[in-house]
Amino acid sequence: MEYVYAAMLLHKAGQKVDEASLKKVLEAAGVKADDARIKALVASLANVNIDEAITKAAVAPAAAAPTAAASSAPVEEKKEEPKKEEKAPEEAAAGLGALFG
């Protein structure tokens, strides 16, 4: 994902998105640049209009805030579950001993 961000940053700054520029941005950000991934990204962006791709990108809709009716609904009380009795360590060890004969 860092590679795509670097390409978008270069594009937004009006710089050419090429291998050397991408490598410089990634290294400046502290990312160990992989030359093969950089070449693949530059090749895949060669025929892409980045501005058009950004405007057409799908944006996830924001989650709707709860309505007043939903927030004023009565809250269910949690029922206390009966506590399970814990076995003494000796009893547990005896149970394990039965498994191994």
Report on this structure.
By secondary structure, this protein is an all-alpha fold. The chain has a domain at 2-56: Arc Repressor Mutant, subunit A (Orthogonal Bundle), CATH 1.10.10. Helices cover 53% and strands 0% of the residues. The chain has six helices and no strands. Helix 1 (2-12) packs across helix 2 (19-28). The relative contact order is 0.09.
Identify the notable features of this structure and list them briefly.
single chain, 101 residues, mainly alpha, Arc Repressor Mutant, subunit A, elongated
**Strand element count:** 0
**What is the N-to-C succession of helices and strands?**
HHHHHH
The fold-level CATH name of the domain at 2-56 is: Arc Repressor Mutant, subunit A
Low-confidence segments, given as residue ranges, are none
Which percent band covers the strand fraction?
under 5%
Termini separation: 56 Å
Identify the CATH class of the domain at 2-56. Answer: Mainly Alpha
Q: How many DSSP helices?
A: 6
- Overall average residue pLDDT: 77
Biggest β-sheet, characterized? none
Q: Helix proportion of residues, in percent?
A: 40-55%
Radius of gyration: 29 Å
The secondary-structure class comes to mainly alpha
CATH architecture of the domain at 2-56: Orthogonal Bundle
